[in-house]
Design brief:
Length: 203
C-alpha cells in the first residue's frame, strides 16, 4: 500500500511518504509534507511500525520536509491495499493543463488530475494544532469530479507515467473547498528548497 508515515513523536499522526531523494550532502531522505512533522521528530512505518527516520529539514511556507531514510526509488501504484510499485525515473516541471496521478495512503492512486493554477495557496491546522499558510502551490482538479485527496494523503507523490515507471512532479499538500480540488507542491520548488536530486546509482 502507499507508504504510510506515522509521527512517533506526535501521537502517531499519519501522512504519506513522497519520493526518496539523494541530498547533495551525501545523505538520503524521504520528501514529504512539512505540516506532518517538524525537525527532530521521528517517523515510523504505518504498517510494520518500523523506524523510518528523523525529520532533518523543512520549509513551512512551501509545505516541504525531508526525513532521513534509506528508502528506495519506488512508489506505490494502485489501490490502498496493493503491492504494486513503479520505479521513479526522474523529475520534470509541471506544464499548463498537464494531467497526472497521485498516490495517498487513504485514497490510493488517483489519476485524471489536471493543472489549473500555478500560484495557489491555502491555510489550515498542522499536525500540532498550529495555524499555518502554504504558498506557491499548484492547484489541480480531478477532471471527473472525483475526490482528489483526503486526510492522511499529505506528502504522497504526484507523478506522470513514463513507460513502466514514473516521473516525479511533486507531493500532495491538501485539498480545496470542492472535493475534486487538490493542492500540491511541485518537485522543482522542493528541489530549490533543499539541494536534492534523483541519483541513478542510488536507484
Amino acid at each position: 500500500m502507499p507508504a504510510i508515515l506515522r509521527n512517533y513523536s506526535n501521537n502517531y499522526v499519519g501522512c504519506t511518504g513522497g519520493f526518496a531523494v539523494q541530498g547533495y550532502d551525501g545523505y538520503k531522505y524521504i520528501l514529504t509534507a512539512s505540516h506532518c512533522g517538524k525537525p527532530g521528530h521521528w517517523f515510523v512505518d504505518g504498517v510494520e511500525n518500523d523506524w523510518v527516520g528523523q525529520v532533518q529539514y523543512e520549509n513551512t511556507g512551501h509545505d516541504t520536509m525531508l526525513i532521513s531514510s534509506n528508502a528506495r526509488g519506488w512508489i506505490w501504484d494502485g489501490p490502498v491495499v496493493t503491492n504494486q510499485q513503479k520505479q521513479v525515473y526522474g523529475w520534470d516541471w509541471v506544464y499548463p493543463k498537464e494531467q497526472f496521478c497521485s498516490s495517498g495512503s487513504n485514497t490510493g492512486v488517483r489519476c485524471g488530475l489536471e493543472q489549473h493554477d500555478f500560484t495557489a495557496w491555502y491555510c489550515d491546522w498542522d499536525a500540532y494544532g498550529r495555524w499555518e499558510c502554504y504558498n506557491d502551490l499548484i492547484e489541480a482538479h480531478q477532471i471527473n469530479g472525483l475526490r482528489a485527496t483526503q486526510p492522511g494523503d499529505s506528502g504522497g507523490p504526484v507523478f506522470t507515467l513514463s513507460g513502466a515507471g514514473v516521473i516525479a512532479k511533486g507531493i500532495i499538500s491538501g485539498h480545496g473547498v470542492s472535493q475534486n480540488i487538490m493542492y500540491f507542491q511541485d518537485f522543482a520548488t522542493a528541489r530549490n528548497d533543499f539541494p536534492i536530486r534523483f541519483d541513478p546509482l542510488y536507484y
